[in-house]
Here is the input.
Amino acid sequence: PFTFSQEQQNWKTMDKSASNDSTLQLQTVARNVRVLPLVYMSILDHHARRDRQKFVVGTLLGHVRGLTIEITDCFAVPHSISDTQVSFEVEHHKKMKELRAAVYPNEVVVGWYSTGSGIDEKSQLIHTIYEDEIDHPVHLLVDLRTPTTSIASKALVAQEIGVDGGALGRVFAPVKCDTFVPEQEAFALSKLNECLLDDDGRVACATDKDEVANATTKLVQLIDIALDYVKRVNAGEIEGDERVARYLADTIATSPTTDVNTASQDLLMVLYLANLTKAQVVFQEKMEGALAA
Here is the structure.
């Protein structure tokens, strides 16, 4: 294991007196972090299986798309914490990374996760280990102290602060963190939610017809909500949001439009061709019957 003592790491602290002469400058690294639900499930499982540890630590995998980082998977990394040092299994981390790269070559290490309530000196030491491997790793902090129906989490990045181009120190700055669900996983997650609401914890898979009916019902409900929102804005009951208006306009613009005249002409052409084909088949059958006689 790789052992890191707090005395070995020289984390700079911000000199408050320097802020009297110049404005502090904060370097932006990442603006958005998107997390798959599978990542939270893996972290919860790791935390539930911990052995006499106050918090757990692991590596985050995903993709970097500009200023947005997508976290798609993770794996646990053994560690131990004392009052003066942090012991981190670097060899385990490297081995797991190689195995994952053989199966999912497009996924890269984007940061690390931990369970807890905040940042301390030990978090800074672990963050430094990942900084030796990648630039600007993301720290996903998951708070599991109180049982609740939702997961309290936040994404943090280490940023340098300085005056006139000079670095004075580093801080962990929060960035926007959202959960995104791909279409192929939405069905499975919806079934898991139904199991939580069911007394027996069992839910039968619906048929294709039922799924279409349920999707149509939800769509009608969403349209009713949108219509009610638009009516209330037009009536002056609530203040309109430009983002919602832009989203509704984009949604309507992507909806297919149908020309009634063109559709009617196409339908008449199909009927004409179908009747013509039917007449040709009947005529061919009569000719074959006449020649056979």
In short: Residues 132 and 266 are 65 Å apart (CA to CA).
